[in-house]
């Protein structure tokens, strides 16, 4: 069974109605990134940080997976499919995909401020000051902030190294270290980039560009991949 690795970014979630947090002005929902998405911001004003992610969590709970998410699940009938996502939402899980690696964490989880390995599912949408881990430290969002290491890269690289087919959906491949993942794909792997501005994302000539939104392009591409096996 061939291996398909899917790299997804904000573009696939945007079609479900999730705002791409970082706008063209560099702000996330009218907040500077340095105010809500860094370890320094957490130390300086944890209440603001919690409030920011509580609002994002509420937003995500109101939306549903789209056709692109559901179509990727169909690939599992004939391929070994691994999804590596930069998104912090749970739309891939809710659509039914079985192998998902979240590079930047998950918004519906919390972790200890003392021990990053103590991770908890959030039963409530709201996190607040006073929510503690078993060590007695304040719980923080299970999100990889700017300036922090991306530990899941160590698991993502071996997946790319074994890929027969790579699908890149809704990501500009501009944010490192995730942007460097494609370098680990075998030279003979098939690579598809699906994005309305796909041809502007990379100069690699061995890539098939599909200049369309994920919800329209992915179902068609999935059908073709299933027919080719």
Question: Which terms would index this structure?
Answer:
single chain; 229 residues; alpha/beta; Rossmann fold; 2 domains; three-stranded antiparallel beta sheet; 8 helices; 11 strands; 29% helix
Total beta-strand segments: 11
Order of helices and strands: EHEEHHHHEHEEEEHEEEH
Biggest beta sheet attributes: 6 strands, parallel
Provide mean pLDDT, rounded. Answer: 89
Q: Report the portion of residues in β strands.
A: 15-25%
Q: How far is the N terminus from the C terminus? A: 9 Å
- CATH-level-2 architecture of the largest domain: 3-Layer(aba) Sandwich
Q: Briefly, what CATH class of the largest domain?
A: Alpha Beta
Question: What structural class is derived from the secondary structure elements?
Answer: alpha/beta
Q: How many separate domains make up the residues? A: 2
Query: Unreliable runs, pLDDT <50, ≥5 residues?
Result: none
Taken from the alpha-carbon principal axes, the silhouette is elongated
Instruction: Give the CATH H-level superfamily of the largest domain.
Output: TPP-binding domain
Note the total helix count. Answer: 8
Plain-language structure description:
This protein is α/β, with parallel strands linked by helices. The protein folds into 2 domains: 1-18 and 65-104 and 150-229, Rossmann fold (3-Layer(aba) Sandwich); 19-62 and 109-143, SIR2/SIRT2 'Small Domain' (2-Layer Sandwich). The protein is 29% helix and 21% strand. The chain has 8 helices and 11 strands. The protein has helices at residues 10-14, 33-36, 39-44, 46-61, 67-74, 91-95, 153-161, 214-227; strands spanning 3-8, 27-28, 31-32, 80-85, 100-102, 105-112, 119-121, 139-143, 165-169, 190-194, 208-210. The strands form 3 sheets. A 6-stranded parallel β-sheet has the order 5-4-1-9-10-11, with helices on both faces. Strands 7-6-8 form a 3-stranded antiparallel β-sheet, covered by helices on one side. The protein has a two-stranded antiparallel ribbon with strand order 2-3. A hairpin with a 6-residue loop joins strand 6 (105-112) and strand 7. Helix 5 packs parallel to helix 8 (214-227). The longest helix has 16 residues, at 46-61. The chain starts with a strand and ends with a helix. The relative contact order is 0.18.
